[in-house]
Design brief:
- By secondary structure, the protein is of the alpha+beta class.
- 25% of the residues lie in helices and 19% in strands.
- The strands form 4 sheets. The protein has a 3-stranded mixed beta sheet with strand order 1-3-2. Strands 4-5 form a two-stranded antiparallel sheet. The protein has a two-stranded antiparallel sheet with strand order 6-7.
Length: 237
């Protein structure tokens, strides 16, 4: 009887442990920025990689549970790791860490809204909030990213860092076709303090009379947008 033989792999396999290497580096980067920018104030969270649409990364409060204990999740989109440079990827991690800081020590607004407290802390760590990822963009709102302040704390911390993610995802994303959304006819405006809602046409400037707070427009949920010129800038980070 012929002894069975194990098939040989068609592609060479890594001699190391990719999962261990990648997540150890991810955890080391979180710990490094926690020490350098947050004075070790942030608790450990569950770090993850998630292919969420139109998102470079996200923070999900109390997403994971073990018994009666919960923990937050910080996730990076692996599809963009190879496309973006290491400094931009690290800035996304710190962006989400600011959300974590606000969840633990501040007063976050309704889900998805970037308020002034968050924006102030972003500047403190060396990232300028901007809904266009450029100078002059809005600092607060539902879809706010950032750009790096040259010479600021984040830039200095990154320059001194010797860590990096060893594995980069090779998925092509730059050539993906994006369908241009049509303009929404009606959008929801929400008060970030009391969660009161109002509906109206895009472009209104509403104020909550009870809280004296501006009521920003939320994202449309039917495939439309409140600002088609910003369609390709709809990032969570």
């Amino acid at each position: 009887m012929t002894e069975p033989t194990n098939p040989q792999p068609t592609n060479p396999q890594p001699s190391s442990d990719p999962t261990k290497e990648q997540f150890a580096a991810f955890r080391a980067m979180y710990d490094y920025f926690n020490h350098a920018l947050f004075a070790d104030a942030l608790h450990p969270v569950l770090l993850n990689f998630s292919r969420a649409a139109n998102t470079l990364g996200f923070f999900a409060p109390e997403r994971w549970k073990r018994g009666e204990t919960t923990t937050h999740e910080i996730s990076l989109n692996p599809s963009y790791l190879a496309e973006r440079d290491a400094r931009e990827t690290a800035s996304t991690l710190v962006h989400e860490m600011v959300h974590c800081w606000q969840q633990e020590y501040g007063r976050p607004s309704r889900r998805g809204y970037h308020n002034e407290e968050w924006a102030t802390q972003m500047e403190a760590v060396g990232l300028m909030p901007s809904d266009t990822r450029a100078v002059g963009g809005k600092r607060t709102g539902y879809r706010v990213s950032h750009y790096i302040l040259e010479g600021g704390p984040f830039a200095a911390a990154f320059d001194a860092m010797t860590l990096s993610l060893p594995w980069l995802c090779g998925e092509p994303v730059a050539d993906a076709k994006v369908k241009k959304p049509r303009l929404a006819s009606k959008v929801k405006y929400s008060c970030p303090s009391c969660d009161a809602n109002a509906w109206g046409k895009p472009g209104l400037h509403l104020t909550c009379a009870d809280c004296d707070e501006a009521m920003p427009a939320g994202d449309a949920t039917d495939g439309t947008t409140t600002n088609p010129e910003q369609a390709e800038l709809r990032w969570a980070a």
